[in-house]
Amino acid sequence: MKKSPILFTIILLLFNSCSLPEEDESYDKKIIQINLPDAINVAQQQNYSINELVNFSITIPRLVRENNYSELLDIRRTSPNGNFKFQIKYSKKNVSGNWEIIKFEPFLKFVNGGVISSNDEYSPTYGLAIFNETNQNYSFEAAIMLIQTGQYKLEISPLITTYYKEKQDLTFFEIYHNEQSITKYSVEFSVN
Question: For a Cys staple, 126 with which of 57, 108, 116, 151, CB 3.0–4.6 Å?
Answer without folding.
Answer: 116
